[in-house]
Automatic annotation (TrEMBL):
This is Biogenesis of lysosome-related organelles complex 1 subunit 1. The lineage of its organism: Eukaryota, Metazoa, Ecdysozoa, Arthropoda, Hexapoda. It comes from the Eukaryota. PANTHER family: BIOGENESIS OF LYSOSOME-RELATED ORGANELLES COMPLEX 1 SUBUNIT 1, BLOC-1 COMPLEX SUBUNIT 1. GO terms for biological process: endosomal transport. Belongs to the BLOC1S1 family. GO terms for cellular component: BLOC-1 complex.
Amino acid sequence: MLSSMVKEHQAKQVLKKELQEAKRKEACSAANDLTQALVDHLNVGVAQAYLNQKKLDAEAKQLHMSATNFSKQTQQWLNLVEHFSSALKELGDVENWAKAIEGDVRTITTALEIVYQGSQENSQ
């Protein structure tokens, strides 16, 4: 009777250990599934951040190229305006020179008229 009770107790113990082992394996499997789900969820965010970073890098590169082109165009415009300004200054210089020559020619013409009139008066 005692030996049958011991055997019965040992059989229950084995059954409980098997049940406990099965529950442990089930808990480990559930923990692995949870861990995998969390990693997958985090990976989605990381992947999205990586894609966003790639887009930002591409847009920054495009912006840099646009800024460089704009700078070149601005420099060309500045050079063009500088040349135009120089041409206007030269034109103004030519105008002043022409006015000075015109004044000199008038002075000479007036002087020649006076000399001519004086020589006409002397001849009469």
